[in-house]
Design a protein that fits this description.
This protein has 4 helices and 5 strands; from the N terminus they run αβαββαββα. The chain is of the alpha+beta class. Strands 2-3-1-5-4 form a 5-stranded antiparallel β-sheet.
């Protein structure tokens, strides 16, 4: 029995067109030097879970629905008395996407989810970490079409980190622009 897996649409576009375009645009000598997506990390902090333990279950279910993969529960590393937080208490969830799931999520993110953000004018292109990785925050999980509006109890935000193999911010920015990431356009004066 043979199993055939389809290549995600955006990955096929990257392999066929974008990689060669970036190689010439960035002036790279080898095709293996061209930056590519490495992983996407979705992180949700839920500090209220200290007092209500069942919130973590709801958060993990929402993240699993969005990502298509079961998240891990993050726990507090230190105790903080002012926040009634003890070491080892569950305070959030995160999931790391790689491979085909990463490409499918990135495609849904830029084509379905981000355009649903209210008053969206583009994401800032200055949120790079110095090594070509881009992090941005989403204020509500409702932008993802997988989430049923009637089944959520509260609006939660999340941080999404797109890790690339780029060595500089400019290379990472060029990669994300070529993939169609909606960066904010600077005002032409």
């Amino acid at each position: 029995m043979t199993t055939t897996t389809m290549t995600p649409r955006l990955k096929a576009l990257y392999n066929d067109q974008i990689r060669d375009q970036l190689k010439s645009e960035l002036g790279l000598g080898n095709v293996m030097e061209v930056p590519r997506l490495e992983k996407i990390v979705i992180n949700v902090g839920c500090g209220a879970a200290v007092e209500q333990r069942q919130l973590i279950d709801k958060v993990t279910a929402e993240i699993a629905t969005i990502a298509g993969q079961k998240p891990i529960v993050t726990r507090a590393r230190v105790s903080i008395a002012n926040f009634k937080l003890r070491e080892g208490n569950p305070i959030g969830a995160k999931v790391t996407l790689r491979g085909a799931r990463m490409w499918e999520f990135f495609d849904r993110l830029i084509n379905l989810a981000i355009p649903r953000i209210r008053d969206f004018r583009g994401l800032p292109d200055r949120s790079f970490d110095g090594h070509g990785n881009y992090t941005f925050g989403v204020t509500e999980q409702l932008i993802f079409p997988e989430i049923d509006y009637d089944k959520i109890d509260t609006v939660r935000g999340m941080d999404i980190t797109i890790c690339t193999t780029a060595s500089t911010n400019d290379e990472g920015r060029a990669l994300l622009r070529a993939l169609g990431f909606p960066f904010r356009r600077e005002a032409q004066g």
